[in-house]
Every structure is written in C-alpha cells, then in structure tokens.
C-alpha cells in the first residue's frame, strides 16, 4: 500500500529525531575510546568522499602552549588580506607596531585567496586543546587557521604557497614594526649590555641637505645592498656594508645615520666605545646585535684616544690639586688625598681598555660569526687622524664626505624650513655667498628658522644673507691674519738664516786667521 506524503514525512521526522537522540546519548555517555574510534572513522569517511585537503596551523604549540610564530605570521598575512574581504574582524592593539590597530579574521570566518591561479580557502576556528600545559595551566580553546585546497594542487600549496604566505607575513611584520634605538650606555658605568627605546628620528633622505648626485649615489648603494643577499652569498662575502662619514661639525653626519636607518627600516645600535670595559665586552656587544640593523660608532677618533686623554686629564687634575694643597691646611690635605684615591679607583673601574686591534677583531668577528644584513657606520671630524687599518676598504667600504653647505644643499634646507623653492633676487646672492664661505648646514638651517610666528620667508633669507656676509668678512680677516703671521714667520726665518750665515762666515774667518797665525 502506497504511503501518503504526510506519512513519509512523519516517518523521516521520527528517524531524524531517533538519530539525534542516539547522537545526544553518544555525546553524553559514550566512553572516550569509543568516541575516538567513531571520530576517526567519521573523518576517514569524509576524507574519502571529499577531494579537498586541509592543513591546520595552531595558535599555540609545544609543551608550554606558547604562541606559535607561524600562527602570528599567517595571522598578519591574512589580516592584510581579510580586512578588505571578511565581514567579521577581530581588532587588537599592538604596541610595537607603526599601525597599532591590527585587524584579523574572527572565529568561523572564511576568506578566499588565490595563488598562481589556484584558489584556496582560509578559515579561523577554535578547538579544544589536545592536552594541558605542563604548568597545569589550561587553555579553554586553541585557535587555529585552517587552509583548504583541492588535492590536485597539493605540491604547489605545500612547496610554494605556504612559503609565499610566510614570506609576505614576515615582510608585513617587518614593515610595520617600530624601529628601535639600542644603546650600550645605560647611564651607569657598571651596567653593560644593550638597552633600547623607540627610534623616532624624522630625518629622511628627502630632507637631507647635500648634492643630489651624491645623495642618489648613496641611496643606490643602499638599495643594492638591501637586494644583495644572493650576490653576497654567491661571492662568499658576509652580507654587510661599512660606511665612514667624515666632515666638520654640523654637516649632517648623525642626521645621515637616521636617514639611512629610516630608509632601510633598520634598528640602530649606538655603540659608545668609552663605556665598553674591554675587547671581550665589545665582542659580546657586537655579537648581540640583530640583523637588519645599523651599528654606529660616532666620533671614532675620540673614542680610541680616550684612554690617553683621560691620562692627560688625570695628570692635570693631579697638578692642580698639588698646587691647591700648598694653600690649604693639613686636615683638608688628608681629606683631599682620600678623595683622590676614591676618584682614582672609580676612574680605573670606568676606564675603557678597548684597543684598536680589539675593535678591528670585533668588527671582523661579527661579520664572520653572524654576517647577516648589517651596516656599520663610523663618523669622525678628523679623517686623517684615523688608522688606515680601521678604514680600509672591506671594513669601511664607502667613504662619504659631509661637506659645508653649498647652493644645492641650501635649496633643500630652504624647501624644508621655509617651503620656498626659488627667490629671484635673494637666491643668487645666497648662491654666491655660499660659494665664498664655509658654513655648515646646521648653521644655515639655524638661520633659516623663523624667529617668530610673524617672520616670513623673505626676512629669514635676508637674515641668512646678513649672517653669511659677516661670516665671510670674519673668514677674510682670519685669512689675512694667518697670511701676515705666515709672512712674519717667513721674515723671522729669513733674519735667522741671515744671522746664522753671518755667524758661520765669521767663525770661518776666525778659524782661517788662527790657522794662519799658528803656521807663522
Ligand atoms: N646635511 C644636512 N641636512 C639637513 N640638516 C642638517 C644637515 N646637516 C646638519 N643639519 C642640521 O643640523 C643639526 C646638526 O647636524 P648633525 O648632528 O647631523 O651634524 P654632525 O655632522 O653629526 O655634527 P657633529 O660632527 O658635531 O656630530 C641637525 O639636527 C640638522 O637639523
Ligand atoms: Mg654627530
């Protein structure tokens, strides 16, 4: 007898209700071993039927259930893609990032991605942890990302796509991170090691005043270095570059370092040699630096001579104190002596025993032991004072002279400080004066800065002209004085020479006369 539709539906309803009841009973009372067995077969059955493969990346891994780096990288990659496509996003504020608000896919959200024409799907899920952490701390759920793709693309996805996701994710993290400024001078001489703060110097190559060709050359050099991983590996050289910046004070050496760090997106390690106890500590400090960083030693000429300077200073202090001692009574003399001993002890502790050869070995050591993507920069006001071994090519690959401000550099400063790119009357006068005077960009910049809110660009330019004219006059006077001095010295030398000549002639005559009378 044929069944009516109503009857069929009611039969199906009761079957479904029975199945649901059985499943609820199974969930409630089924022993865990049996449940595992059933789950296993359930998965096997679905795997057999489905042409898709799934890979899961858990948020936490290992004994301590610590955050997996891979998960963070994937989260960043998906965050960059999903924020445009996913409808439900999770927001997080990350302190050490340039864009602190980080968006990522929320639970059970799914997005599609494409790689070499192949479609894949990512979903964010949560699942119960397999085991508790050894510490006893348990996580309610473990979050994970699931990557789904067709099994015919297995090789492409596992060999190339995942690699692509990890590289892209890492690049985004690197780009968004806040740069750090590390210093080994923690303010106390007994502290060693690096301490850091956020690096936020606004200097950029666009704001750096120097000849455009020179700037271009440096930028090209940096770009070549950044892209040179394979090249350096091919020629068997550590991936590093050394720059020596030299020039008078205020010509932009420190500013250039900040511009390089910002351009390369590298952290800065500002190494204060005078607070490094000895060569061993120096080596440790250098090895502790990370890759993608700029290591800076400012005023290298002063740093290495410091021990000598300190000795001289100590001797001077000692002589001063001796003189004072004569004037004071005996009691204060004893007190002075005690203080002296304490000072000397402290001085001895503070003294840096870093030597030139130690520095050279440490620099070479760091390249050989951890050669990845580092730039080392020395600055000096007196390049001639430096030992050639320190600045030979291979250690300091590029020597960059930071020179006095000329017209091209001035134009950059005028644009930065006054937003002015030309001035028919005043620019030519400034061009001429800058060609005749040696003025540092720091001085030019100072004169270009408006002194009040009402001061306009023209009056700033006029101030600069006035300042340049005064500086020029001073330079000429100085040159004149030096010339006169030189003439005076030359004149004195001439007189001395003539006198010596006369004396010698007279001595010869006396000698001849003695010989003559002696022979008679
Ligand atoms: N070439 C430049 N471009 C832009 N600004 C500059 C330049 N040179 C100097 N300045 C300005 O002058 C200031 C001092 O410059 P900076 O500290 O870079 O000079 P320096 O060469 O390192 O001097 P020192 O030899 O005394 O250490 C900077 O804060 C910057 O504003
Ligand atoms: Mg400087």
TrEMBL record:
GO MF annotation terms: ATP binding; ATP hydrolysis activity
Reaction equations catalysed: ATP + H2O = ADP + phosphate + H(+)
Keyword Mitochondrion: no
Residues of the AAA+ ATPase domain: 239-406
PROSITE patterns: AAA
Cofactor annotation: Mg(2+)
Gene3D superfamilies in the record: 6.10.280.40, P-loop containing nucleotide triphosphate hydrolases
Coiled-coil residue spans: none
Keywords: ATP-binding, Hydrolase, Magnesium, Nucleotide-binding
CDD domains cross-referenced by the UniProt entry: RecA-like_BCS1
Pfam families referenced in this protein's UniProt entry, alphabetically: AAA, AAA_assoc, AAA_lid_At3g28540
Domain of life from the UniProt record: Eukaryota
Database matches in SUPFAM superfamilies: P-loop containing nucleoside triphosphate hydrolases
Stretches for region Disordered: 308-352
Biased composition (Basic and acidic residues): 316-333
Comp. bias (Acidic residues): 334-347
Example of a GO biological process term: response to stress
Entry's family note: Belongs to the AAA ATPase family. BCS1 subfamily.
Name of the protein this chain belongs to: P-loop nucleoside triphosphate hydrolase superfamily protein
Species: Medicago truncatula
């Amino acid at each position: 007898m044929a069944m009516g539709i109503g009857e069929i539906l009611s039969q199906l309803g009761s079957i479904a209700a029975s199945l649901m009841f059985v499943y609820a009973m199974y969930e409630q009372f089924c022993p865990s071993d049996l449940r595992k067995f059933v789950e296993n077969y359930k998965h096997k059955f679905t795997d057999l039927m489905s042409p898709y493969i799934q890979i899961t990346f858990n948020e936490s891994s290992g004994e301590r259930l610590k955050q997996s780096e891979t998960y963070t990288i994937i989260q960043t990659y998906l965050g960059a893609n999903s924020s445009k496509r996913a409808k439900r996003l999770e927001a997080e504020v990350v302190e050490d990032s340039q864009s602190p608000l980080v968006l990522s896919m929320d639970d059970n959200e799914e997005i599609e991605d494409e790689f070499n024409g192949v479609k894949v799907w990512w979903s964010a899920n949560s699942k119960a942890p397999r085991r508790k952490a050894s510490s006893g701390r348990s996580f309610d759920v473990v979050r994970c990302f699931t990557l789904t793709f067709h099994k015919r693309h297995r090789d492409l996805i596992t060999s190339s796509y995942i690699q692509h996701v990890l590289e892209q994710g890492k690049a985004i993290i690197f780009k968004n991170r806040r740069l750090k400024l590390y210093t080994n001078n923690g303010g106390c001489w007994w502290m060693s090691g690096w301490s850091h703060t956020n690096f936020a110097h606004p200097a950029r190559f666009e704001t750096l005043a120097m000849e455009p060709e020179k700037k271009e050359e440096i930028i090209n050099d940096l770009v070549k270095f950044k892209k040179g991983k394979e090249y350096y590996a091919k020629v068997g050289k550590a991936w590093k570059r050394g720059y020596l910046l030299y020039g008078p004070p205020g010509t932009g050496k420190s500013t250039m370092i900040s511009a390089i760090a910002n351009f390369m997106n590298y952290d800065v390690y500002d190494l204060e040699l005078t607070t490094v106890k000895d060569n061993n500590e120096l080596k440790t400090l250098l090895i502790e630096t990370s890759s993608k960083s700029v290591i800076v030693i400012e005023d290298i000429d002063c740093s290495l001579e410091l021990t000598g300077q300190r000795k001289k200073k100590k001797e001077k202090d000692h002589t001063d104190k001796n003189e004072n001692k004569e004037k004071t009574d005996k009691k204060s003399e004893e007190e002075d002596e005690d203080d002296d001993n304490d000072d000397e002890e402290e001085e001895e502790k503070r003294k840096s025993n870093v030597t030139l050869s130690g520095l050279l070995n440490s620099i070479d050591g760091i390249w050989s032991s951890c050669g990845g993507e580092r730039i080392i920069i020395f600055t000096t006001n007196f390049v001639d004072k430096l030992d050639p071994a320190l600045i030979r090519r291979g250690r300091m690959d590029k020597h960059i002279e930071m020179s006095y401000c000329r017209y091209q550099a001035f134009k950059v400063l005028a644009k930065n400080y006054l937003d002015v790119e030309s001035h028919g009357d005043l620019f030519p006068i400034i061009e001429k004066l800058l060609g005749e005077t040696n003025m540092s960009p720091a001085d030019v910049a100072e004169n270009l800065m408006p002194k009040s809110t009402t001061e306009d660009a023209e009056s700033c330019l006029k101030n600069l002209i006035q300042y340049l004219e005064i500086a020029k006059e001073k330079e000429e006077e100085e040159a004149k004085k030096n010339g006169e001095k030189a003439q005076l010295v030359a004149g004195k030398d001439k007189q001395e020479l003539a006198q010596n000549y006369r004396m010698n002639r007279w001595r010869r005559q006396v000698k001849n006369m003695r010989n003559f009378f002696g022979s008679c």
